[in-house]
Amino acid sequence: MRLKLIKSIERGQIMEMMYLAKDGSVSQRRIKILQVEGEMFQAYCFLRKAKRKFLINNVLALVPIIKHERDVV
């Protein structure tokens, strides 16, 4: 997971994440990862419209959001 986070920073990708919160609830968030530090990472959360810190071990799923551009004919 750590390597996936670092690659996301290098590529400047926006990611879709399923995250397990401290209270046991699961949330789906759209994030842009800013920094990986130890067992945590910092990301801009589009849901909360703020920078947030997340535990790497609490990430359930992480996939890049791929924008498809239409070819103009």
Concise synopsis of the structure shown:
The chain has 73 residues and is mostly beta strands.
Map the helices and strands.
Layout: H1 2-11, E1 14-20, E2 26-37, E3 40-45, E4 50-55, E5 59-64
Account of the protein in words:
With 73 residues, this protein is mainly beta. The chain is 14% helix and 51% strand. The protein is globular.
Oligomer: single chain
Tally of individual helices:
1
Mean of residue pLDDT values: 92
**Number of distinct beta strands:** 5
Q: Helical percent range?
A: 10-25%
**What is the alpha-carbon Rg in Å?**
13 Å
Biggest sheet, in brief? 5 strands, antiparallel
Shape: globular
Terminus-to-terminus distance:
40 Å
Order of helices and strands: HEEEEE
| Residue runs with pLDDT of under 50 for 5 or more positions | none
- Indicate the structural class: mainly beta
Please list the strands of the largest sheet in the order they lie side by side. 4-3-2-1-5
Provide the β-strand percentage band.
Answer: over 45%
List keywords for this structure.
single chain, 73 residues, mainly beta, 5-stranded antiparallel beta sheet, 1 helix
